[in-house]
Amino acid sequence: MVRRRRKYRKKLGSRSYHGDTKNRRGAGIKGGRGRAGAWDHKKSRFRYEVLGKKGFVPPRKREEIVINLSKINEIVTSPSFSGDAIDVTELGYTKVLGTGQLTKPVKVVARSFSERAKEKIETAGGEAVIKE
């Protein structure tokens, strides 16, 4: 059996092994140098792996931080709570949702309420007050 090196090993030193002498010259073969093309043809790698994903949030859009009636009920029925009103904006919440029940008549102050939350607060004998 004849053992010899493959032909490409012999050709490696020559300029024209990959065809014309212009082929594979410069950085065009790899799509540019460095971060070239980061927002164009190399976008998937650079946007997510290197730069991290970025998104657009409209400047006037305010995210609602919500609290449910069940959580308000836990706060109101705890022994440390005294009084007949609770301001959820002081706790860092902006909107009250209607999941759960109120067992005590309480005046609840928030920026906004869902319809179900308003109904449940009023049926428990409390009051829903919108804070500006």
Describe the protein in words:
It is a single chain. This protein is an alpha/beta fold. The chain has two domains: 19-55, no CATH class; 66-130, Ribosomal Protein L15, Chain: K, domain 2, CATH 3.100.10.10. 23% of the residues lie in helices and 14% in strands. The chain has four helices and six strands. The protein has a three-stranded parallel beta sheet. The chain is rod-shaped and about 95 Å long.
Which SSEs are present, and which pair or pack?
Elements: H1 7-11, H2 43-50, E1 66-68, H3 69-77, E2 85-87, E3 95-97, E4 107-110, E5 112-113, H4 115-123, E6 127-130
User: So how many helices?
Assistant: 4
Poorly predicted spans: none
Return the CATH topology of the largest domain.
Ribosomal Protein L15, Chain: K, domain 2
Distance between the termini: 92 Å
What series of H and E elements makes up the topology? HHEHEEEEHE
Count the strands? 6
Radius of gyration: 34 Å
Q: Strand arrangement, largest sheet?
A: 1-3-5
Beta content comes to 5-15%
CATH class of the largest domain, anyone?
Alpha Beta
The assigned structural class equals alpha/beta
Q: How does the overall form come out from the CA principal axes?
A: rod-shaped
Domain unit count: 2
In the CATH hierarchy, the architecture of the largest domain is Ribosomal Protein L15, Chain: K, domain 2
Helix content estimate = 10-25%
Q: State mean pLDDT (0 to 100 scale).
A: 85
Largest sheet: 3 strands, parallel
